[in-house]
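Human: I wish I could look at a protein chain and see how it folds. This is the protein in question:
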Amino acid sequence: MINRLRDGLVYPAQLLNYTKDRILFVLLYIALFALLSSSRTIIEIIQYDGVSYTFRTSLSEDLAEVDADCQITNYTLACSDEVESVYIFDAFPMSIYLDNNETLNTNDYNSSYNVIVHDDELIFVFSGIQLTSMKLEMLSTQFKNLDFNDIGTDQEELFASQILGGIDEYLISSKSIWGTMLVIADFLSNFIMFIGFVLISSFFLRRRYRIIPFRDSFTLSTYASSSVFVVLAFYSLLNLPFFLVFILIFLSFRQNTLMMYEIDRRLKKPLDKE
């Protein structure tokens, strides 16, 4: 695997020696970089020890008033009117919603991290996928009675403290559960993105060299994309400026060009002998 990474980064002409690699090995190669691209998420989860001071301040200042009359009474949400996707806080990286519909539709919550109060549960949703849920009575006594009409009044700071206290207790105690699910979701997202990139590259390589089987094109495109994978992994880990990432990805296409030069040379070689 090290040799393939080295040649993908430095000696792309040598990649033609790996066309017979097993497809499972090629997929594992992609999976490795998908995992490396999730490293920032993994580090943040390991270091998580509660909601940050910045987020606490932001929540206290940016709580949105709820039009409907909503309260949590004895650990159960009740509103005077049917409420659908009404947010009380909406800012990166977390949004908090009230949903009093009989059935929760997670597809309505397709931003990154969502905390949803629904009936007698607190539900955590990531990009439309429910990660986990917990009964409010299992979380904290701070969720026993909450009046959302306190938002916008002199009781707002106390209200925010209750909300954050309850969420903090749950997130810290169940970090191994939601953290694992979050890493898996992030990994799958990166893996699908990398596979899509390789498939597109394979398609164009196959169109140019129809003599090369698609399986071999997929293998070559994977290893030739090593520099792209490395750039995206560092982008995730170091949070590089997007314009710099764009420039690095553009430069990385040079590897594909050099590999195609080698393909041209090998295809012409038998003709030259004749």
Confidence is low (pLDDT under 50) at residues 270-274.
